[in-house]
Amino acid sequence: LQNAELGKRAPRWIRDNEVTMCMKCKEPFNALTRRRHHCRACGHVVCWKCSDYKAHLEYDGNKLNKVCKDCYHVITGCTDSEEKKKKGILEIESAEVSGNSVICSFLQYMEKSKPWQKAWCVIPKQEALVLYMYGAPQDVKALATIPLLGYTVDDTPRSADLPHSFKLTQSKSVHSFAADNEELKQKWLKVIHLAVKGETSECQNELQGNS
């Protein structure tokens, strides 16, 4: 919702399973962190600390409702003196980059000898040479980024690997990925093969558009 509409219209609630961390302070949710709460103004999932505000919401008959800190400031007009910290490289919201990406999907990811884990992977259009990895599609901070330039792509899975997997290697760092099917794997490889050479798929898109 736009700031002007906050509190005037009911928001779309982000589902609990769409995030692994508070959408405001980015603290991960885990068994120890207290429950997830929804801001009644913007619909974001937030932790208890970030939902400790109340504001009168027009769409709910001006009743006092739990809201997040940001919405509280917008609706009540009270502002924090502290300036918003500049966003770090990892603090680019997943929804922001997924909506304007060269490619995005879930992939299984493995680093060194750790177990495979599911990650939401995105290559944004603005940074078509960087792979962002998120815990879930609506997370507001990336778990990791891989600058793809200069990596070597190995797309022949070994018997111990998951099927439809591929590896990115550069000196000592090895990142293993696996797609759910061969078609998805090939889509990712097409983009990654260009990115490791410092190229983007812009020119390809133009060609496809003309065909």
UniProtKB/TrEMBL annotation:
Residues 16-76 form the FYVE-type domain. One of its GO terms (molecular function) is zinc ion binding. It comes from the Eukaryota. It is found in: Cytoplasm, Cytoskeleton. Gene3D superfamilies: Pleckstrin-homology domain (PH domain)/Phosphotyrosine-binding domain (PTB), Zinc/RING finger domain, C3HC4 (zinc finger). InterPro entries: FGD1-4_PH2 (IPR035941), FYVE_RhoGEF_PH (IPR051092), PH-like_dom_sf (IPR011993), PH_domain (IPR001849), Znf_B-box (IPR000315), Znf_FYVE (IPR000306), Znf_FYVE-rel (IPR017455), Znf_RING/FYVE/PHD (IPR013083). One of its GO terms (cellular component) is cytoskeleton. Keywords: Cytoplasm, Cytoskeleton, Guanine-nucleotide releasing factor, Metal-binding, Phosphoprotein, Repeat, Zinc, Zinc-finger. Signal peptide: none annotated. Residues 100-197 form the PH domain. GO terms for biological process: cytoskeleton organization; filopodium assembly. Residues 17-67 form the B box-type domain. This is FGD4 protein. It comes from Psilopogon haemacephalus (coppersmith barbet). The gene is Fgd4_0.
